[in-house]
Amino acid sequence: MLEEALVRGWENLVGRWGGPLGFRFLIQPAVAILFAIRAGMKDARQNEPPFLWAVLSNPGSRQERLRQVRKDVGTVFVVALILDSIYQVMVHAGIFTLELLITATVLALVPYLVSRGLVTRIARWAGVGKQPVHSTAHDEQTEK
Questions:
Q1: Any residues with CB less than 8 A from the CB of 19 and at least 6 apart, and which?
Q2: What pLDDT, in 10s, does the model give residues 88-114?
Q3: DSSP 17-42
């Protein structure tokens, strides 16, 4: 039964690209990625580790990090749920909960989680978050 639901869900997800409300396959991941860029840059400026790595390896900061995800992509996730519910009622005359959750996760959470870590790594590589070393008058006098 679960396998049937997963197969049907995947087939319906792939088949939705050209159907009604197809625009959400571009808009929702784009919005999630924009939130991820903002959060990833903030992580880089604060010298935080990449997001997913920090969630998995540091239990002390896990709650705060997950709260950030809810804040950043919670609305995008809820909109994905609503739009997919509308789509399912229009096309299938019913709502399939597992498909609904899979679609919302693929459209909102996956792009956010992948992008945030990449943005943090790229920003660090580009020098964001590195503090420049400034010499002071005292340092210059002690060198002489």
A1: 87, 91
A2: 888 888 888 888 888 888 888 899 889
A3: TTSTTTTHHHHHHHHHHHHHHHHHHH
